[in-house]
Design brief:
The structure holds 2 protein chains of 2 kinds. Chain A is built from 19 helices and 15 strands. By secondary structure, chain A is α+β, with helices and mostly antiparallel strands. Classes of the chains: A alpha+beta, B alpha/beta. Chains A and B meet through α4, α5, β1, α6 and α7 of A and α1, α3, α4, α12 and α16 of B.
């Protein structure tokens, strides 16, 4: 920046709209930060608290001063890159070293309290008492006392966490409709009050005898039950009071569970770090390693085949419809865009019905008996055909646009030089067109490389040869890996994250190679 | 150019991971009919919970209109507001587990019983205590379905199972006693297809369960306490191989075909092309609309073998473990368990065979078919709700599809058994 420009810059930045804009931006930043940080703290999302704080401070430092001119321009892009790209990748990477998944989502404390809470069993043949929750103190804070009416003999009892079940003389309380409605020295809680203090009141158990206690069932009923699982915090063990079985923390696979002597484990576990176990499984599991290369090969064929076929068909149609001798070109162009306008998942389901061996449109119209989706080779053809149908309109649009942008004088020069139509197309139009569309071909390849929907909705990766469950005939990497990570015993996010990271690296390498290739193409021109 | 190229590279790589994450967020469509026990990621589409409501219920879009009115009426009577929120059925389980864990989930959900195992291992639901006379008032299958590891986790209200639909115009035998009789009767009057039973290219272990059990196949053995033992997988054992041989036979005869899937099985029957159909109460509306003169009966077994035991699914109400209105939720569930009022009010909007015996009697004159389904469900077996069930659907279905297509029953079933055991943790 030269000195002559500096005054102009200063006068620009101090105009009223600029200042207003700045104030609004900074105000909005502050407002959002103040609004969102308490919520994030409540959810204990410390990473995001740090991100928001960092961003807010960054915005203030950068935009309140006249310094850091390059920073002002770089910051917005960098910020969104970090939040939407790098942060998810870092999180995925972090999850790949844990056992995060079904049964291992929460903390150990949550698992322990769930095991205890879930073990309360209703005592057989015990009555359901009419319950009134009362307190001598504040209805919101307690301590709470239960007034209980036995439905059979209308006898009244009271009790609390400290006081075991005690009979109440009939004169001390008013009983109406099977419940105590008034008790001297106590406030009877209403249903909303009970609900508001639900967490504490649910902890109240009134001891009946050694192993049985009365607990709240609903706002006006109580039941007698026994917690059959008792946790010993010192020893970190659970004891089943009915069977006497003792559950200790043991590793099953790479995850800690409470397991008894007979090897039975409790279903609840918790989030734990497992080191490189997920990666070990990915690279050493014989089933996965053996099928990986085959799936990779078909993925390349599928992606390259889809790009090539859609481009050739799209280009040919664009050429034909670019010829001025064609009539009603507008109409044809609109019709050709139809497949593009139909949502992919509807189109694919329609096609999967077309391919049905006995009832499908294709076999019926052509009087064939091809097992389209049941034979691995035909299924591959079916997948490519469907993807061609869905993909060619895109190439058609792109090529039409590029063709219309070609300079007319080049074509005229070719004509004057005596080139035939074919020669003009192959030697002049094609190279010029490729310069414009090759980045799109690369993008299309990358898209089809991970075209999960095309495979999953049409064939679900099938057909599967008898006895083969890891990789079906049309499985590309992503659909195979999806099945491995989620098809088995519940969701396994830790393993899925490890797979994501591996695939991320692989795609990165392929993308780098592609750009090497396209830059060669650019150098030619 | 250099910068552009690099950012392009980053974009491509990010695209890959985004695609996988998106794939991960997708629902597990390999077993949608059966309602897989697996849950997956992504809390997308989960509604924000109204903090002022005294009770928040999450359910799918079929049940939401039915429960809304009755639940609000109950709320009014108890002086609180009830919010019913719709979550797409395929996202409900995953969204509920994630939201509940984060402390912003609902108080109640309505779902099928086969989710219980996964909800329990994720500490997502609290037990409920049913009244002592529940065993007299409710169909026995409803109670056994709601029981997991000896504890009751939900208040049941509706049951469904697979039955045999008979097109009386295409066959004279409305209640075939065996599959052999069904085949003979279905072919006698020249119907295009004897039996419409969905198999599909990926197999359909849910619809095939009757045939599988009749020939002696089982999924999980029982442990000492009467629960299911995930370490004892029946796939690949003797009975399953016998079942495989029967499936191969039926496939060779053209009775079973991978061309028939859940996409076209019901329409084959309603178009008058199939004499028999194996499907559930959800097919009733289409069949009636098509004006087919039909009958319903139990799915028959093979001659001289076991009776066919299809799966039953029981819908119920569950209390969220992190519910902010746990007392209201327990009170509501207790109301469902002790009185038929709310379930009866739900019925007109979303007709499901009830589990309450009194309600069955009351509805029988007007809805004989639905009540018949509820009766037939008593001979069914609740779909296993243990999380290991998620490992069954894929391999068993694929093995069955291969066998119907002509593969060797013994080696295929055994390989499926090995695959399933390797998936169970």
């Amino acid at each position: 920046m030269t000195t002559t420009q500096a005054p102009a810059h200063r006068s620009r930045s101090s105009s009223i709209p600029t200042i207003l804009g700045k104030v609004l931006l900074l105000g909005a930043t502050l407002a959002i930060a103040i609004w969102i940080i308490p919520a994030l703290i409540a959810l204990q999302q410390w990473l995001w608290v740090a991100v928001v704080l960092f961003a807010a401070i960054g915005i203030f430092v950068l935009y309140t001063t006249k310094r850091f001119i390059p920073g002002k321009y770089i910051f917005p892009g960098t910020f969104f890159l970090v939040v939407f790209l790098i942060a998810p990748i870092v999180l995925t990477f972090a999850y790949s070293f844990t056992n995060f998944g079904d049964g291992t989502r929460g903390s150990k404390e949550q698992a322990v309290s769930a095991i205890m809470g879930n073990s309360v069993q209703q005592a057989p043949d015990s009555p359901r008492y009419g319950l009134s929750v009362a307190t001598a103190g504040d209805p919101a804070a307690g301590p709470y006392t239960f007034f209980l009416v036995d439905p059979e003999d209308q006898k009244v009892y009271q009790g609390s966490l400290e006081q075991d079940l005690t009979p109440v003389p009939a004169g001390d309380v008013t009983v109406e409709g099977g419940r105590v409605t008034e008790a001297q020295g106590f406030t009877i809680l209403t249903m909303p009050q009970i609900n508001a203090a639900g967490r504490e009141i649910q902890q109240v158990s009134v001891k009946v005898d050694e192993d049985s206690a009365i607990r709240m069932l609903t706002a006006n009923q109580a039941f007698e039950g026994t917690a059959t699982m008792v946790y010993d915090e010192e020893a970190d063990t659970f004891t089943n009071t009915t069977s006497g079985a003792v559950y200790t923390v043991q590793k099953v696979g790479n995850t800690d569970y409470f397991v008894d002597e007979a090897g039975n484990r409790l279903p609840q576990s918790w989030l734990q770090g497992v080191g490189g176990a997920n990666y070990m499984r990915l690279f050493t599991d014989g089933k996965i390693a053996g099928q990986f290369l085959k799936a990779f090969g078909w993925t390349l064929v599928f992606a390259a085949g889809s790009v090539l076929s859609t481009f050739l068909v799209g280009f040919a149609l664009a050429l034909v419809l670019n010829d001025e001798r064609m009539k009603s070109r507008r109409f044809y162009r609109s019709v050709l865009l139809m497949p593009y306008a139909i949502p992919a998942f509807i189109a694919i389901l329609m096609w999967s019905n077309f391919y049905n061996r006995d009832f499908g449109l294709i076999n019926q119209v052509l009087h064939l008996h091809i097992n389209w989706l049941g034979d691995p080779t035909w299924a591959k053809a079916a997948v490519l055909l469907t993807n061609l149908w869905m993909g060619f309109p895109y190439m058609f649009i792109v090529c039409t646009g590029a063709l219309q942008a070609l300079p007319g004088d080049v074509m005229e020069a070719a004509k004057i030089d005596g080139a035939s139509r074919l020669q003009t197309t192959m030697r002049v139009v094609m190279p010029l067109l490729l310069v414009a569309v090759s980045p799109l071909l690369v993008a299309s390849f990358a898209f089809n490389f991970n075209n999960f929907n095309a495979i999953q909705l049409l064939t679900e990766g099938g057909p599967f040869p008898a006895g083969e469950y890891t990789r079906g005939g049309t499985d590309i990497l992503i659909s195979m890996i999806y099945r491995i990570a989620f098809g088995g015993s519940g969701a396994d996010f830790g393993f899925a994250s490890a797979v994501s990271v591996a695939l991320f690296v692989l795609t990165g390498v392929i993308a780098a190679l592609q750009f090497r290739f396209t830059s060669v193409l650019e150098d030619v021109n | 150019m250099l910068i552009r190229r690099k950012s392009f590279l980053a974009l491509g790589a990010a695209g890959a991971s985004a695609a996988l994450l998106a794939a991960c967020g997708d629902s597990d469509s390999t077993s949608t009919t059966a309602g897989s026990g697996a849950s997956d990621g992504g809390a997308s589409g989960a509604p924000a919970v109204d903090p002022n409501a005294g009770l928040v219920i999450w359910c799918d879009d079929e049940k939401a209109p039915a429960i809304k009115g009755p639940a609000e009426k109950w709320g009014e009577a108890n002086g609180l507001t009830v919010a019913v929120q719709t979550v797409p059925g395929e996202d409900l389980q995953a969204n509920f587990i994630t939201a509940n864990q984060a402390g912003n989930g609902p108080d109640l959900i309505i779902a099928a019983h086969d989710w219980i195992g996964n909800l329990v291992q994720n500490s997502a639901i609290s037990p409920v205590q049913l009244p002592a006379d529940a065993s007299e008032k409710l169909a026995p299958i409803a109670l056994s379905a709601m029981t997991y590891d000896g504890q009751t986790y939900g208040a049941p209200y509706a049951v469904e199972t697979l039955v045999l639909f008979v097109n009386k115009a295409l066959t004279d035998v409305a209640e075939p006693a065996t599959i052999e009789e069904l085949i003979a009767a279905g072919g006698a009057k020249g119907a295009e297809h004897v039996l419409s039973l969905p198999v599909g290219e990926q197999g359909d272990a849910y619809h095939m369960e009757g045939i599988y059990t009749s020939a002696g196949g089982y999924l999980f053995g029982k442990n000492a306490e009467g629960g299911l033992n995930p370490q004892d997988v029946g796939v690949g054992k003797e009975g399953s191989i016998a079942a495989g041989e029967k499936m191969k036979e039926l496939g060779a005869q053209g009775i079973l075909s991978t061309s028939i899937s859940t996409d076209n099985s019901i329409s084959l029957f309603t178009d008058g092309k199939a004499a028999y159909l194996i499907s559930g109460p959800w097919a009733l509306a289409d069949i009636k609309k098509a004006g087919i003169d039909f009958a319903m009966s139990a799915i028959p077994g093979f001659e001289g073998m076991n009776p066919a035991v299809p799966f039953a699914g029981v819908n119920g109400f569950y209390v969220a473990s992190q519910s902010k209105n746990a007392v209201n939720a327990q009170t509501f569930v207790n109301e469902i368990a002790t009185s038929d009022t709310i379930v009866e009010e739900m019925f007109p909007e979303d007709q499901r065979p009830p589990v309450s015996l009194a309600l069955q009697q009351k509805l029988a004159p007007e809805y004989p078919e639905l009540v018949r389904v509820a009766e037939l469900a008593n001979a069914a077996e609740p779909m296993p709700s243990i999380p290991a069930m998620a490992a069954i659907w894929g391999p068993l279905g694929k093995a069955q599809a291969s066998i119907v297509g002509g593969a060797d029953p013994k080696s295929t079933m055994e390989s499926a058994g090995t695959e399933i055991s390797s998936q169970i943790k």
